[in-house]
Amino acid sequence: MIAAISMIRRLDGITLGAFRRHWLDVHGPLVCTFGGLRAYMQCHPIESPAMNTRARALPIDGFPILFFDNHAERAKTKGSPALAALDVDSTLFIGAVARIAANVETLVPEVASPGRVSALLLYLDPADAEQVNADSDRLAGLPGVQALLRYHIRGQGAAVNSTVPHLPITVGAALQARFGSLVDLECAMEGWEPTHAARFVVEEHRLV
């Protein structure tokens, strides 16, 4: 399975509430019309003691993640009317965006009826491979973890054919650990400060 991940910052002058409402109610349904889409979630960062200073320093207001079975399925979106509509709509609420293509590795299989809160760890230095391995082992052993994904980055950069400015953030690797609740996540990660990762706490909205 592969993932198309975006890091998005809201347009100047738009409140966070208005940004999230448009993303969920207008933009999200347009994404759902993509052919070949296996799953789609919007990850909305939320304030939490488990979010660290590196994450707070990054100008990111959301992470849309689209899952496809393979690259051929993802390629079906290119040049489609749905993508053209998305590019137009993006200019109404997104101020900057960076795109990531990644292979998805399941380290902890998802439980039945999982929660909708996760820790999303971004490793900004490609040299952090050893740290990613250590952190993935530690996350897998945390109490209450309901799923753990590792994103192996294949490529990243500006959005093709989009007029939305590029968000100049480079990611070397990413981990996503899902928990049953915010309390479960915060208790499990209390006192843990990874050396390298920007650690976001996100609320997942699954649209597909």
3D architecture notes:
The chain is 26% helix and 36% strand. The longest helix has 16 residues, at 16-31. The model has no long low-confidence stretch (mean pLDDT 94). It has six helices and eight strands. It has 208 residues and is of the alpha+beta class. The radius of gyration is 16 Å and the shape is globular. It has helices spanning 16-31, 53-56, 71-75, 81-90, 129-140, 182-189, and strands spanning 2-10, 37-45, 63-68, 94-108, 117-123, 145-157, 173-179, 198-206.
Largest sheet: 8 strands, antiparallel, barrel
- The radius of gyration is 16 Å
**CATH fold name:** Alpha-Beta Plaits
**Alpha-carbon distance between the termini?**
15 Å
Sequence of secondary-structure elements = EHEHEHHEEHEEHE
Under the CATH scheme, the architecture is: 2-Layer Sandwich
> Which whole number gives the mean pLDDT?
94
Percent in strands:
35-45%
Report the uncertain regions.
none
Which descriptor suits the 3D outline?
globular
Q: How many extended strands? A: 8
Structural class: alpha+beta
The number of helical elements comes to 6
Q: In the residues, how many domains can be counted? A: 1
Biggest sheet strand order reads: 1-3-2-8-5-7-6-4
Helix percentage? 25-40%
CATH top level is: Alpha Beta
Supply database-style keywords.
alpha+beta; 8-stranded antiparallel β-barrel; Alpha-Beta Plaits; 208 residues
Structure summarized in a few sentences:
The protein is of the alpha+beta class and 208 residues long.
